[in-house]
Amino acid sequence: MTQARATYRADLHVHSRCSDNPTHAGIRAMRGRESYAEPLEVYAAARSRGMDFVTISDHNTLNGSLAIAHLPGTFLSTEFDTWFPEDGTRVHVVALGIDERTFAEAERARASVHDLVACLRAAGVVHYLAHPLFDMTGTLTVDTVERMLLLFNVLEGRNGARVNRCNGLLLEIAASLTPQTLADMATRQGLEPYGETPWRKALTGGSDDHTGLFVAGAHTEAPGDGTAEAFLDAVARGACRPVGADGDARLLAHSIYSASFWRIREMLRLDESAPRRRSLNLLHKGFGKIGRDVPVLDKAVRGVRSMAPGLYRDGDGRGPAWEALLERELGALLASPDGINAVDSRELNRRLFIVALRLADDVIDLHLQPLLDPAVHLSRKRRLQSAFAVGMVHFLQLPYFIAWSLQSRDRASQERLRRHFLAMGPADPKIAVFSDPLAETGSASMSLRRLAGTAAERGLELEIITSTSAPTGRHDGALNFRANAWRPPATATDPPLVVPPIVDVLDYLEENDFTAIHVSTAGGAGLVALLAAKLLHLPVTGAFHAALPRRRYLTWFCGMLDEVFAPSRAAARDLVARGIDPRRVRVLQAADEGEAILGSFGGPSPGPGWRHAQGVRNAVSRRPAPSVPARRG
Fold first, then answer.
1. Are 159 and 141 in a shared domain?
2. Which range marks the domain in which residue 159 is found?
């Protein structure tokens, strides 16, 4: 009986502070680095999280991996920036186990990915294409991906900074390849595939961590004899597999926070006795209170007590409750011998998000509710202070908004790739419907219940989402998010003014893979739905069941929707007269609504109601009906 060979692990894509020549324009404008993680800290984190081998793949330099080369279980690596000369698409190629002489030759050749790969092949250097479906330059096309598949036999199958929507599509495409599909690609691209079995792709995994926080969250497993050489040989032969977690927007946001924090410290020279500029003395004084000499949890607690004393005032329990959460989620972790490395990156990411989100919601609640409550009378100074605090919290949450937008911006190109390589259309939609609280009666409530029933009959996923002062949870057939603030309605017919928790809602939509948004309210819930659609790059429609008042805000709101469903021809004509593109206005009868809305998101083939709605829309717009419902780009 043959004894099974041991399996070894390595994070084959990780960065340190030696990635100091950023290609991103925003980072360059701040004169920052792509990473501030110390190479020795990266090594310690990888070892603590069970990696047998450690390498650092900084951009266009060996300095990071050279800094740990004296330690056991290491080898030199780098991540080359290079380009496809055919269309200018920038890609990243990671070279593993490269020596300094070959690095110098490859550095001279990297202006063309073809020349770079030829250089690495001639030197026998194992290399792979990092995050192949991440469109860095906005030029990624089907032809580019075909060239990638012809040129590279080792691909990064799991990148710890990219979402499953991107990583998973690559795995599907790689699994679908056959000798014939590669031959067809070679004919189209005029590029011969490399190797004896180029349709069998080796797949690696790497965290693509830039912070030191999430090292080894994704990594590569391969058999071997305990040497780095054998491990890399297994990767080259395809005897490896990607392991670990995909990324998400929260992880990217936490990476942005980390880089921003260290850049601010660097700009202000907070580890020096004097600040960089005299004008920054005040900022240095305040920021310096969270210096290296203060334990990290004490930094957080001192900062919150100083900036949000209202969380502790008059017996308010929110401050103490947040401190208990901080201690529960992070305190015990930091007290362990391995610190944050005692848990994997997914768990650390979750804990950081929970603590940050709870604090942000508490501060917004504290300041926003008095601004909206007519029973509370604040001085002008207090109102300005509260408004500033709410605005500052949302400003500090910008990394989350940026991360959600960046992680979802490639949805359209990914669908094009899916159609081309897998001959698959889009999956059935999963629709989030934002509404005011559902009442037992009323045309809007009845319409939404019919819409939910139609979706259930079609086997589609649809969830109604509201926001009220009630606790977060499911109530009356809808998922309610407890609002950060609310104001009672002025009259019995008006909806209440609510401010939903924006980050909570965005996180829920992304984590649960919703693919479309529909709104039946232009209030607070509708605004958050609109913001979510834009940040997550999702189609958004709206249906209104009464004539809309002539308000500029409502005209603007409808103009931001991809399609507007009006309750009558008169209402539709009114929307067009206000400047709404007539190609995006539809008129519905009650029986038509479910089929038309579901059909607009690419659901199952609609019935006669769709044809009726389309015909009415043509009468309103007086234009020929397009074969596909027009949407804004």
1. yes
2. 8-247
